[in-house]
Amino acid sequence: MKKIVVSLCVLVTLGLQANDIASDMKTMRDGLQEMQDGFLYNNSKSVVSGIDKIEKVNGSLHSKESIESFLPQEKKKLVGVTLLSAKSLNSDLEAMREYIKQNKMLEAAALHSDVMKDCTRCHAIVRGW
Questions:
Q1: How far apart are CA 90 and CA 126, in angstroms?
Q2: How many independent structural domains does the chain possess?
Q3: So what's the pLDDT on residue 99?
Q4: Distances 81 to 50, 62, 67, 68, 88 between C-alpha atoms, Å
Q5: What ranges in the chain are assigned the alpha helix state H?
Q6: Residue 39's domain is classified under what CATH number?
Q7: What is the average pLDDT across 91-120?
Q8: What residues make up the domain containing 65?
Q9: Do residues 118 and 88 make contact, with C-beta atoms less than 8 angstroms apart?
Protein backbone atom coordinates (compact mmCIF):
# COMPACT_ATOMS: atom_id res chain seq x y z
CA MET A 1 0.00 0.00 0.00
CA LYS A 2 2.84 2.36 0.88
CA LYS A 3 4.43 1.78 -2.54
CA ILE A 4 1.17 2.64 -4.28
CA VAL A 5 0.82 5.90 -2.36
CA VAL A 6 4.44 6.87 -3.09
CA SER A 7 4.03 5.95 -6.76
CA LEU A 8 0.88 8.05 -7.05
CA CYS A 9 2.62 11.01 -5.41
CA VAL A 10 5.50 10.75 -7.88
CA LEU A 11 3.14 10.52 -10.85
CA VAL A 12 1.09 13.48 -9.68
CA THR A 13 4.24 15.54 -9.10
CA LEU A 14 5.62 14.71 -12.54
CA GLY A 15 2.27 15.47 -14.11
CA LEU A 16 2.09 18.82 -12.35
CA GLN A 17 5.61 19.70 -13.47
CA ALA A 18 4.70 18.84 -17.07
CA ASN A 19 1.57 20.99 -16.81
CA ASP A 20 3.51 23.84 -15.20
CA ILE A 21 6.17 23.90 -17.89
CA ALA A 22 3.54 23.62 -20.64
CA SER A 23 1.62 26.51 -19.08
CA ASP A 24 4.80 28.55 -18.66
CA MET A 25 5.83 27.99 -22.28
CA LYS A 26 2.35 29.01 -23.44
CA THR A 27 2.67 32.22 -21.41
CA MET A 28 6.05 32.91 -23.01
CA ARG A 29 4.64 32.22 -26.47
CA ASP A 30 1.76 34.59 -25.76
CA GLY A 31 4.25 37.22 -24.62
CA LEU A 32 6.30 36.82 -27.80
CA GLN A 33 3.15 37.14 -29.91
CA GLU A 34 2.05 40.24 -28.02
CA MET A 35 5.50 41.78 -28.46
CA GLN A 36 5.52 41.07 -32.18
CA ASP A 37 2.02 42.45 -32.64
CA GLY A 38 3.04 45.55 -30.72
CA PHE A 39 5.92 46.16 -33.09
CA LEU A 40 3.80 45.48 -36.17
CA TYR A 41 0.94 47.73 -35.05
CA ASN A 42 3.05 50.46 -33.45
CA ASN A 43 1.75 49.74 -29.96
CA SER A 44 4.54 50.03 -27.42
CA LYS A 45 2.17 49.10 -24.57
CA SER A 46 1.65 45.69 -26.19
CA VAL A 47 5.39 45.24 -26.51
CA VAL A 48 5.89 46.05 -22.82
CA SER A 49 3.02 43.75 -21.84
CA GLY A 50 4.67 40.94 -23.83
CA ILE A 51 7.99 41.64 -22.12
CA ASP A 52 6.26 41.45 -18.74
CA LYS A 53 4.75 38.04 -19.55
CA ILE A 54 8.06 36.61 -20.68
CA GLU A 55 9.98 38.05 -17.73
CA LYS A 56 7.47 36.59 -15.29
CA VAL A 57 8.13 33.05 -16.53
CA ASN A 58 11.81 33.56 -17.26
CA GLY A 59 12.35 34.63 -13.66
CA SER A 60 11.56 31.07 -12.58
CA LEU A 61 14.25 29.69 -14.89
CA HIS A 62 17.27 31.19 -13.18
CA SER A 63 18.19 28.26 -10.97
CA LYS A 64 19.81 24.96 -11.80
CA GLU A 65 17.11 23.09 -9.88
CA SER A 66 14.18 24.67 -11.73
CA ILE A 67 15.69 23.87 -15.12
CA GLU A 68 16.71 20.33 -14.16
CA SER A 69 13.11 19.66 -13.11
CA PHE A 70 11.93 19.65 -16.74
CA LEU A 71 15.04 18.65 -18.69
CA PRO A 72 15.10 15.04 -19.86
CA GLN A 73 17.66 12.94 -17.98
CA GLU A 74 20.04 12.75 -20.94
CA LYS A 75 19.99 16.58 -21.26
CA LYS A 76 20.62 17.50 -17.62
CA LYS A 77 24.32 17.94 -18.36
CA LEU A 78 23.36 20.93 -20.54
CA VAL A 79 21.74 22.85 -17.69
CA GLY A 80 24.49 25.49 -17.89
CA VAL A 81 23.60 26.36 -21.48
CA THR A 82 19.93 26.73 -20.60
CA LEU A 83 20.85 28.94 -17.63
CA LEU A 84 22.89 31.15 -19.96
CA SER A 85 19.94 31.33 -22.35
CA ALA A 86 17.61 32.41 -19.53
CA LYS A 87 20.08 35.08 -18.40
CA SER A 88 20.65 36.29 -21.95
CA LEU A 89 16.89 36.47 -22.46
CA ASN A 90 16.55 38.57 -19.32
CA SER A 91 19.29 40.93 -20.49
CA ASP A 92 17.72 41.30 -23.96
CA LEU A 93 14.29 42.01 -22.47
CA GLU A 94 15.73 44.64 -20.11
CA ALA A 95 17.52 46.34 -23.01
CA MET A 96 14.35 46.22 -25.09
CA ARG A 97 12.37 47.84 -22.27
CA GLU A 98 14.99 50.63 -21.98
CA TYR A 99 14.88 51.32 -25.72
CA ILE A 100 11.10 51.57 -25.56
CA LYS A 101 11.33 54.05 -22.66
CA GLN A 102 13.63 56.15 -24.88
CA ASN A 103 11.20 55.75 -27.82
CA LYS A 104 13.89 53.95 -29.85
CA MET A 105 11.55 51.44 -31.43
CA LEU A 106 13.93 50.30 -34.19
CA GLU A 107 16.56 49.34 -31.63
CA ALA A 108 13.93 47.61 -29.48
CA ALA A 109 12.57 45.72 -32.50
CA ALA A 110 16.08 44.58 -33.44
CA LEU A 111 16.30 42.86 -30.06
CA HIS A 112 13.22 40.80 -30.89
CA SER A 113 15.39 38.50 -33.01
CA ASP A 114 17.84 38.14 -30.10
CA VAL A 115 14.93 37.16 -27.85
CA MET A 116 13.93 34.50 -30.39
CA LYS A 117 17.53 33.22 -30.50
CA ASP A 118 17.54 32.90 -26.71
CA CYS A 119 14.30 30.91 -26.80
CA THR A 120 15.44 28.75 -29.70
CA ARG A 121 18.77 27.93 -28.04
CA CYS A 122 16.96 26.43 -25.07
CA HIS A 123 14.36 24.68 -27.24
CA ALA A 124 17.14 23.10 -29.30
CA ILE A 125 18.45 21.46 -26.14
CA VAL A 126 15.14 20.39 -24.67
CA ARG A 127 13.71 19.14 -27.94
CA GLY A 128 16.93 17.68 -29.30
CA TRP A 129 16.99 19.69 -32.52
A1: 19
A2: 1
A3: 97
A4: 24, 12, 10, 12, 10
A5: 2-40, 44-58, 64-68, 79-101, 105-127
A6: 1.20.120
A7: 95
A8: 2-127
A9: yes
